[in-house]
């Protein structure tokens, strides 16, 4: 696969946190279709239940993924396994392992945050379910821990995240620690670090992402209309 510009459509944003943040499968699908028109072929989303809460349960995951897949049939679709959704690591791994039977609703990949309790078990559950693994690395301590443990089977990329208040300098140190692992690195920021880190990723030839999960503002700091606008601005920088 060549360079990846991924669209992260909603993340943990609460309903109402932005007028355009997509919550329902139909809203996610509509946003994905608009972003695909700009050339995006990779999507990261957080499935929700009927009241808008994030879930890892198979039926809701399958519904979100399958509806989005109809809208963007040639794209890869990923989801989260965030520990804040199901704090019990044993139960979290059980739910993820159950994704094996989701058929058209099974995601292509899922992010696993290396700093979270039970992440290795969740990664193994994803492997058993036939779902690719994005290794979420939020700081240098997690990068070193991953290097010590080694890359789990089934990993497709490292999802390197630079936290708010940090910037290209921190991004550079994180990437330097992760590069020896030999996996593709998707580097992105969050909130005020989103655009500077995206530019740093592009300058280094790394995969990156943008969307309402990562920022609610455009490059010039004005409120974003929605995911498609953010993707269009990122696309102008990338291509």
Task: Give a summary of the structure in a few sentences.
The protein is α/β, with parallel strands linked by helices.
Describe the structure.
- This protein is an alpha/beta fold and 239 residues long.
- Helices cover 38% and strands 17% of the residues.
- The protein contains eight helices and eight strands.
- It has helices spanning 25-37, 58-71, 89-97, 119-129, 140-149, 168-178, 194-203, 227-238, and strands spanning 5-8, 42-45, 76-80, 109-113, 132-137, 155-162, 185-189, 208-210.
- The chain has an eight-stranded parallel sheet.
- Helix 4 links the parallel strand 4 and strand 5.
- It is globular, with a radius of gyration of 16 Å.
What topology emerges from the helices and strands here?
Layout: E1 5-8, H1 25-37, E2 42-45, H2 58-71, E3 76-80, H3 89-97, E4 109-113, H4 119-129, E5 132-137, H5 140-149, E6 155-162, H6 168-178, E7 185-189, H7 194-203, E8 208-210, H8 227-238
Parallel strand pairs: 1-2, 1-8, 2-3, 3-4, 4-5, 5-6, 6-7
Helix pairs in contact: 1-2, 1-8, 3-4, 5-6
Task: Determine the CATH superfamily.
Answer: Aldolase class I
Separation of the first and last Cα atoms: 16 Å
Radius of gyration: 16 Å
**Mean residue pLDDT:** 96
The CATH architecture term is Alpha-Beta Barrel
Task: Label this structure with key terms.
alpha/beta; globular; 8 strands; TIM Barrel; eight-stranded parallel sheet
């Amino acid at each position: 696969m060549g360079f990846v510009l991924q669209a992260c459509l909603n993340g943990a944003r609460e309903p109402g946190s932005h007028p355009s943040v997509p919550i329902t499968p139909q809203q996610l699908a509509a946003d994905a279709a608009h972003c695909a028109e700009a050339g995006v072929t990779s999507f990261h989303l957080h499935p929700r239940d009927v009241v808008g809460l994030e879930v890892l349960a198979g039926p809701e995951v399958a519904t979100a993924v399958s509806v989005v897949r109809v809208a963007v049939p040639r794209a890869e679709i990923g989801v989260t396994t965030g520990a804040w959704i199901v704090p019990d690591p044993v139960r979290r791994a059980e739910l993820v392992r159950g994704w094996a039977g989701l058929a058209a609703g099974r995601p292509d990949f899922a992010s696993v945050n290396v700093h979270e309790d039970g992440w290795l078990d969740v990664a193994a559950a994803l492997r058993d379910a036939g779902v690719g693994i994005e290794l979420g690395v939020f700081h240098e301590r997690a990068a070193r821990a991953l290097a010590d443990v080694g890359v789990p089977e089934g990993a497709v990329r490292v999802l390197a995240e630079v936290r708010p208040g940090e910037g290209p300098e921190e991004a550079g140190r994180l990437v330097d620690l992760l590069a020896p692992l030999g996996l593709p690195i998707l580097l992105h920021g969050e909130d005020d670090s989103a655009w500077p880190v995206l530019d740093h990723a592009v300058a280094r030839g790394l995969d990156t992402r943008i969307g309402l999960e990562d920022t609610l503002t455009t490059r010039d700091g004005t409120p974003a209309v929605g995911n498609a606008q953010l993707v269009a601005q990122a696309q102008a920088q990338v291509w």
